[in-house]
Amino acid sequence: MAFYIFIAPWLLGFITLVLLPLIGGLILSFTNYDGLNWSPLGDSALNTIKFKGFDNYTRIFEDADAMWSLRRVFIWTGLNTPLWLIISFVIAYLLHQRIRGRGIFRTIFYLPSIIPIVAIATIGSQLFHQRFGLINQFMDIFIDGFSVNWLIDYAMISITSMAVWTGIGNGMIIFLAGFQGIPDSLEEAAIVDGANRWQRFWRITVPLMTPLIFYQLLLSLVTALQYVSLPLLMAPSGSNAGVLSAAPQRNVYLFMIHAFVQGFGRQRLGYSLALTWFLVIIIVVFTVILFRTAPLWVHYENED
Hints:
- This protein has about 300 residues and is mainly α.
- The chain has a single domain (about 20-295), classed as Orthogonal Bundle (MetI-like fold), CATH 1.10.3720.10.
- Helix content is about 70%, strand content about 0%.
- It is built from 13 helices and no strands.
- It has helices at about 1-30, 55-60, 65-95, 100-110, 115-130, 135-140, 150-155, 155-180, 185-190, 195-225, 230-235, 255-265, 270-295.
- The longest helix has about 35 residues, at about 65-95.
């Protein structure tokens, strides 16, 4: 009985804040729900909600903006995921070595991860602004009249760099924990056998880190595919519409941004929920592929 009493707060929160909204969102994704055409009090004047079957889902393939945003989020994921993984791994490996002041360096690299996302967007806007940005002003010292509209012409690269920078700290901490878990005896045995640093890295360190690389890869894929905040905050709007209807310019018009605009900007919440569940299906497919291919490259210390 005590067990159920202890888990009751979590279970109640999970049911009311996670499970029921998920089920409700799935049901509403098959309707023309717009946020105002359904009343739980039974008011017939407001209850104009209708079941549309799979119309919202088939509409995704006919929606040019949805297909465009899907392609852009795949490009975004293809840029962010490997960059974040490699840079986090390399920094963690370097800061695992016995170097002077490594505690200070670890703190410095972790700090961006705890800065609020709005502050990160403000910093990015100040760096990449065409007229007053620090990057353009610095380059103007060497190239007279240097002026690049980073957030328009190179929006994907600019915002990707900020997204990677903010996430390096979290990835570094997890990889550091993995490096510290590798037994020193394996390194010492390899040294006795005549292995150099490069051979020890590829034959011992990397194989033993593959479970964490797999975890980080899965986490970064899920995060990148549903990313929305920095492009929405940093990239200039491509329209003069209201705040909720305005979307960033096309280079960084990601899939969840399209779902946000459809739901809260144009009051097509049923269609927005269908877009969201469509993305869930894509994430599940990628997750299954990763788990299916994991035995080919993920190694565990206790394997025969």
